[in-house]
Amino acid sequence: MARGNRSAITSSKWRCLNPSYYLKRPKRLALLFIGFVFLSFFVWDRQTLLREHQIEVAELRKELTDLHNLKLDLFQLDVNSAQGGTVGKTGLEGKITESSKDAPDDPIDTQRREKVKEAMLHAWGSYEKYAWGQDELQPQSKSGVNSFGGLGATLIDSLDTLYIMGLHEQFDKAKEWVATSLDFNKDYEASVFETTIRVVGGLLSAYDLSGDKVFLEKARDIADRLLPAWDTPTGIPYNIINLAHGRAHNPGWTGGNSILADSGTEQVEFIALSQRTGDPKYQQKVENVIAQLNKTFPEDGLLPIYINPKSGTTSYSPITFGAMGDSFYEYLLKVWIQGNKTSAVKNYRDMWEKSMKGLLTLIRRTTPSSFAYICEKNGGSLSDKMDELACFAPGMIALGSSGYGPDESQKFLSLAEELAWTCYNFYQSTPTKLAGENYFFHSGQDMSVGTSWNILRPETVESLFYLWRLTGNKTYQEWGWNIFQAFEKNSRVESGYVGLKDVNTGVKDNMMQSFFLAETLKYLYLLFSPSSVIPLDQWVFNTEAHPLRIVPRNEMGHVQNSNEKHKPLSRLGGRKGGRSD
């Protein structure tokens, strides 16, 4: 086409944008106006239709939700009728609450949650195949070992994890074993602490979730076998007891002393047992321990790890938020939460706040990166060492921060976030991205791993779970996902999961600890689940990650029998996956 012709067409094309063109041609102006009005009505009509469509979709979703919840209630009615129970309040992931409906499940969270669930299936399937009914699986040799006297520790520790993840076929098989094969009449020297947090706690949690009384009956049986441990001049328990004969004593290596954490970490479970059975003896035994310790409780709230059960006095020994001290401080807070934060449990909160003042005196920061860490204390001197076990503390501090006024609350929440960053870097600082057992801090060097094994511990992911729930900051989910991927890369084997003998080399051990299924995988699963799944205002986790329902406790602190009012949660899986059977 010639240049002149192209210019003529261009001139004709753009002259319609000149207003004078229409003023000289009124008919064209009228047609343009009519077209504009028609187009406006068309757009308005489309917007109206779209709004009506959105309203219809919202109404249909609401009807679908109502039908879904009605189906759940009918299903629960069938379950409870078969069990002779009452209709339960549905919960977990099955019943869609307003909060979870308003905040749709993130597709990435859903995908990650399913990955964690698959990891649980791999761990459980391996245990079921090679170590069924035994305490723990040795994946490398594909054999079982009775680390806790043959009480089926992994099975009991896993009950609530299976239930929460919707793995009900596996849960039902485990329940059948509990009902028919679990026998506590063992001539075995059991740890009162470990048996309480794993077995009593695991059984009570399974009862609270399912409503099946076989779990409550078994929890009462084992608790009765543990009770003679509290028969000391002060009521501070011995830490070892023979399950068959009831003979209690302390380990020889403590010089006859009881251990702080071992003696102060039965309150949540035994109070719950009294609430569910109506028998006050369990609660009385464990609350007396706190009453005895409170008589001489120091202003800084920090106790050495050794206590004389005959005199109630402490012995010269380390002060630590790591091994042998940790969960004593945790349970001061959690009994307060379990007791609905009423005046009946105010002394627990008061003691905990004193301990937090003491904890502040143990905080130091590294150079050059300013990682906050919790020192250990020996006499008047501080030791720049922190156990990975102490990484429960960020979660505990965050959970308790809301009980302060605004300024103090923010101060402790910020400290919790700082400590969580340190604990996350325990993982990130090693070649395997898995944390060692403890760390040392030296000027100018930040942190260095001390004892270099990793036995699949949960404490850091526990704190990440609490911080995510309490702040909504998805960074904690990302950190947790990175830790999970490191476990998948380094600890997953053909027949389960193993720890590492050395986080620097990645050399594997031959043990799948029961708490990997009870705690590590459960907290990871909940980290990617909606907050309506085991909500923190309705449940309290024991130190083995077994959730126990918070039930009313009167102001005088007397036991109320909650058994008649007990309502199990509906047996449901995830909203995406449904039931596994």
UniProtKB/TrEMBL annotation:
GO terms for cellular component: endoplasmic reticulum; Golgi membrane. GO terms for biological process: carbohydrate metabolic process; N-glycan processing. Its cofactor is Mg(2+); Mn(2+); Ca(2+). It is an enzyme of class 3 (hydrolase). It is found in: Endomembrane system; Golgi apparatus membrane. Gene3D superfamilies: 1.50.10.10. Its EC number is 3.2.1.-. This is alpha-1,2-Mannosidase. It comes from Lupinus angustifolius.
